[in-house]
Amino acid sequence: MKLKRSLAGVATVITALGVTACAGGAAPDASGNASSDTITFRSWSPIEQTTRQMIEAFQAENEGSKIDATIFNYPEYLVDLQSRASSNTMPDVLGLQPGALTQQYRENLMPLQDCAAETWGDDWQSKFYPIGIEQARMGNPEGDDNFYSLPILTQTVNLWANSEIFDEAGLSVPKTWDELVQTTKDLSGGDAAPFLLPAKDSWLRNVVFLQIANNVSPGTVYEAEAGTVPWTDPAIVKAFDYWSKLFSDGIAQDGAIGLDAYPSAVNQFEAGNAAMIPLGAWWIQQSDPTKSDIPPLSEGMSGYEPFLFPTIPGGAAESQFVGGIDVSLGISKNTANPELACKVLTDFIAGSAAQKLVNTMNDVPAVTGLAPEKFTSEKQEQIWNLFVDEWLPQVKYSRYFESPKLDQAVADALAAIATGDATPQEAAESVQAVQDTL
Question: 99-115 pLDDT, tens per residue?
Fold first, then answer.
């Protein structure tokens, strides 16, 4: 069904955080970075309000040090990062994701294991959830054991339901594909989109596909990425087919390929205009206890229920867990002050700034032993504990591809299916053609 509210004209916001200690910020040095007592930080995450709190916590404990930060929406961040890499003006500390994004800029990044060992000791890896360490070196060339980024947040990817809509309709969240189809039909005709799919974003197309693919045949898609099975393997073609069924079976709303996740789709979901949406553990940040004026559905997570992507006929008997690192951080190899950059990075991961981050529930922390200092409702605490204690330890499959070229190839293939420009078989063949060039 079509959305009841127009999404046209939604502006993308790029926010510069004025949290330096002197008016106007520090003058850039010859490399284009700020002066050596100022660390530049560029990312799409954490969100602006959270990043501000983290910076204030760090600067309070490190007098004389400054952080000049800009938080972008994700698509604009990728454009900015590519421009900075081309002009050799990389930020000192930058947001990354494992696999494709880190590997794309690996030549611009400083290995981080010495920074970690100097801060946390030789057994530093034990501080992190295992899935974060496992994914941190995804895509490294054979023999390269460096850590070019370290996780700051981890997550599952999953679906979310508007529990008020489901309760009013007397429905439970779907656990199988047939139930998903029926639930969508049962919820159609109302004011809310039954299943809001923001398919414009390549990252979201890929994470939904990876949930489908691992429910069809656990792990096979990564064998294809490794070249041990073809992308035209029947299980992978079937996964592409079930992505297609999101559109042909009337599950996704009309015009899904033109809808972005942020800000458009999430604003619609938080306003109560959708019953289901594919996102991830990070959605708990909408109930950030440090914020005021929280929308009613998000207050204490009162209006939401997380659930796993439904099982696929003939596939795994239970829904599979997909996720891992949400956001990781890297340091430019050209930073003017690697010691201060290391201090910022490690504090953001596991120090005072990290506690501010976790207090906002921006996502699940990357290191063990961190938890919010307060919860605002029993439901909010239950959802947090579900992610931390039950779901995250079961994450086996990555939400990322290792190769930037394959990551883009899969995203393009999914877009072609969504627009009717390719069949599932043709989509699989197009990814295999890219695989053959690697």
Answer: 989 999 999 999 999 99
Q: What is the CA radius of gyration of the chain?
A: 21
- β-strands 322-331, 397-398 pairing: parallel
CA quadruple 239, 223, 393, 100: dihedral sign: negative
Helix axes 202-216, 404-418, angle to 10 degrees: 90
Classified as helix, coil or strand, 195 is strand
Alpha-carbon torsion angle 34, 35, 36, 42, nearest 10: -10
130-145 tens-digit pLDDT: 889 999 999 999 999 9
pTM: 0.82
Helix (H, G, I), strand (E, B) or coil at 432: helix
Q: H or E segment at 117?
A: helix 113-120
Residue type at position 172: S
Report phi then psi at 127, rounded to 5.
Answer: -70, -25
The answer to whether 327 and 296 have CB atoms below 8 angstroms apart is no
Of 107, 106, 115, whose CA–CA distance to 137 is shortest?
A: 106
Give the integer Cα–Cα distance in Å for 56 and 36: 19
